[in-house]
Amino acid sequence: MLNVTIDDIKRDPLKYLQQVEAGETLVIFKADKPIAELKPIVVSKQLRPFGLCAGEFTVPDDFDDPLPEEMLNAFEGK
């Protein structure tokens, strides 16, 4: 983790972006206070397996039945 000031970044933004691209995390300071963290985006190319939670949830038979009247009235502010 590298601490830098806003002025440092203004002087040479490409230098710091290259460091982030290389995997470095930057903590940006303004008046000796940390204000932001700049870190690389981690791209996960691994797909989630199909059926990961199979059997952990079942859709009830009444899933698509109309809502009770009192619940409809609550949604509509009545």
Write down the overall geometry. Answer: elongated
Q: Could you give the count of β-strands?
A: 3
Percentage of β-strand residues: 15-25%
Mean pLDDT: 92
Largest sheet: 3 strands, mixed
User: How is the largest sheet built, in terms of strand order?
Assistant: 1-2-3
Q: How is the CATH topology of the domain at 2-38 named?
A: YefM-like fold
Q: What Rg, in angstroms, do the CA atoms define?
A: 25 Å
* CATH top level assignment of the domain at 2-38: Alpha Beta
**What is the name of the CATH architecture of the domain at 2-38?**
3-Layer(aba) Sandwich
Query: What would you call the structural class?
Result: alpha+beta
Count up the helices. 3
| Assembly level | single chain
- The run of helices and strands is EHHEEH
Unreliable stretches: none
Rounded to the nearest angstrom, the distance between the terminal CA atoms is 55 Å
State the helicity in percent bands: 25-40%
Brief synopsis:
The protein has 78 residues and is α+β, with helices and mostly antiparallel strands. Helix content is 29%, strand content 19%.
Properties at a glance:
alpha+beta; elongated; YefM-like fold; single chain; three-stranded mixed sheet; 78 residues
